[in-house]
Design brief:
transcription; 542 residues; five-stranded parallel β-sheet; transcription regulation; GAF-like_dom_sf; ATP binding; Beta-Lactamase; Sigma_54_int_dom_CS; 4 domains
Length: 542
């Protein structure tokens, strides 16, 4: 017996040593796993990267069948799916898309139980499915055959950001190492936080890019003068109304014919408002394709529809805390009028394919050349949207009712386009001014601008002595005019060709086209090459 007892003591020491060595080896293996996992997680930048880690590391580590992460949404009152790695029998279920795209309350008993626990929570699906107040996805889990789910809260800096769901076999629960799972979840918390931060940075980057594009567009299209040209009685009334409404957040409806300067008035109201430090966002309702209007105004999430490869920030969201100018609002389709009315009333929106409601603070300035009251009576415009927009209407006078403003406007455009074209036209003859004041201006200020521009190109001296007004337009026939404008390129090309025809194709020398155009022959040759003018153009004309 003493010999046997001595042998047993030695065996006990050996077994204890073996167990200690095994525990040390296991801890070292876990440390190695966690170290490798932390290095890979630190490099994660997208949800797809995270799914790759889940497939290659975590599922094998814990013998997991399915894996999912839920995130707490921006509103902090709901949670929704972040990433999922599921088998076909689950993803092919008819209710899968509806269940996984929904948002659930953070106060439901299941999520609260997980969030308040410091350790992993083992969920028996059959038992919790009959409890009151459970989220709908628990019933879905039961329908697709899930029996046991292990859940663990994800936290960063003591703040809850979501949770992990692991579908495991019931007989595998005893093998799960709690400390290892908690350590892995700690790494996952950092990964989820980093990915969300990266997505937000990308969203801000896209927003800045859109603002930059808008700013470039504004620089190209904005009228570059400090004050609106015109001090007549009609415009003084407009200025008075602008001064009354500019400092408020009230919706403004600008009414007037095409070319009366509605965008310029909208910009002046914005620049005189407390929102002037932010960019005014402009939307031309006639320029938007019907199938893209909703996405353009309200934005969309990635994958919301075919071609939506990334999240898009809509114009309303881009104009948050600023002004949104809705030009040609009368052209908006009826179905979009309903959605626009809701956003204006509720001051909140949802991106297409999005689950979160986004609060906005946007001041609306709308403009139209239509008679919206007639459009309402004809059933083309919703009365409730009209009343919502018609808070503070401003009627812009047509140019034919602003005779005192025609001369200063003409001289303003003369100075602008003389500089742009390199001509030295400095004055307008009295006969031209009389013609301008006698013309009914169906195209209003925009028509005056283009006619001055064209006339400068056709003038050889420094005084504008002739302006080519349409001859078939008289007072009372404003709506019958169909004006088409040529580009500077087209006008200059046409004018040079006409001069070449009159000069019989002669370019240099006395009586040549260069002499008539008052430019060196080399310059004319250069312009002809740039404008694509060849001999066949002016010889065929001849």
């Amino acid at each position: 017996m003493p010999i046997l007892e001595g042998i047993c003591d030695q065996i006990a020491v050996a077994i204890s040593n073996i167990q200690s060595n095994q525990e040390i080896a296991e801890r070292e293996a876990e440390k190695t796993i966690l170290l490798a996992l932390s290095e890979e997680i630190a490099a994660l930048r997208s949800r797809n990267d995270l799914l790759h880690i889940v497939n290659t590391r975590i599922k094998a580590l814990f013998s997991v069948k399915e894996f999912g992460i839920a995130q707490i949404d921006e509103d902090q009152s709901s949670y929704s799916a972040f990433v999922m790695d599921l088998t076909g029998n689950i993803t092919n279920h008819p209710g899968f898309k509806e269940i996984t795209s929904a948002a659930y309350s953070v106060n439901d008993p299941l999520f609260s139980r997980i969030m308040h626990a410091e350790d992993p929570v083992l969920l028996d699906i059959n038992n919790i499915a009959v409890e009151q107040g459970m989220p709908e996805f628990v019933t879905f889990w039961k329908h697709v055959g899930l029996q046991c789910v292990l859940a663990m809260a994800l936290r960063v800096g003591g703040k809850n950001i979501g949770c992990v769901f692991l579908h495991i076999n019931r007989n595998e629960t005893e093998k799960i190492k709690t400390n290892l799972l908690k350590a892995v979840c700690s790494h996952l918390s950092v990964a989820v936080s980093n990915i969300l931060a990266n997505e937000q940075l990308l969203a801000y980057k896209r927003m800045l890019e859109m603002e930059n594009d808008h700013l470039k567009e504004e620089i190209r299209t904005i009228y570059n003068f400090n004050e609106i040209i015109g001090n007549g009685t009609a415009m003084q009334k407009v200025y008075h109304l602008m001064s009354l409404v500019a400092a408020s957040n009230s919706t403004v409806l600008l009414l007037g014919e095409t070319g009366t300067g509605k965008e310029l008035i909208a910009r002046a109201i914005h620049n005189a408002s407390p929102r002037k430090d932010k960019l005014m966002i402009k939307v031309n309702c006639t320029a938007l394709p019907p199938n893209l209007i909703e996405s353009e105004l309200f934005g969309h999430e990635r994958g919301a529809f075919t071609g939506a490869t990334e999240r898009r920030i809509g114009k309303f969201e881009l104009a948050n805390n600023s002004t949104l100018f809705l030009d040609e609002i009368g052209e908006l389709p009826l179905d979009m009028q309903v959605k626009l009315l809701r956003v204006i009333q509720e001051r909140e929106l949802e991106r297409i394919g999005g689950r979160n409601t986004i609060s906005i603070n946007v001041r609306i300035i709308a403009a139209t050349n239509r008679n919206l009251e007639e459009e309402v009576n004809a059933g083309n415009f919703r009365s409730d949207l009209y009343y919502r927009l018609n808070v503070f209407p401003i009627q812009l006078p047509p140019l034919r009712e602003r005779l005192d403003d025609i001369e200063p406007l003409a001289y303003f455009f003369l100075a602008r386009y003389s500089k742009n074209t390199g001509r030295k036209v400095t004055a307008i003859s009295s006969n031209v001014l009389k013609e301008l004041k006698a013309y009914p201006w169906p195209g209003n200020v925009r028509e005056l601008e283009h006619l001055i521009e064209r006339s400068i190109l056709l003038t050889s001296g420094n005084v504008l002595k002739e302006i080519q007004l349409p001859k078939n337009v008289g007072k009372g026939k404003v709506d019958e005019l169909d004006i088409s404008y040529k580009t500077l390129h087209e006008i200059e090309r046409s004018h040079i060709i006409e001069v070449l025809v009159r000069c019989n194709g002669k370019i240099a020398g006395i009586g040549g086209a260069a002499d008539a155009l008052e430019m060196p022959p080399t310059t004319l040759h250069s312009k002809m090459k740039k404008l694509g003018i060849s001999k066949k153009d002016y010889f065929q004309k001849k």
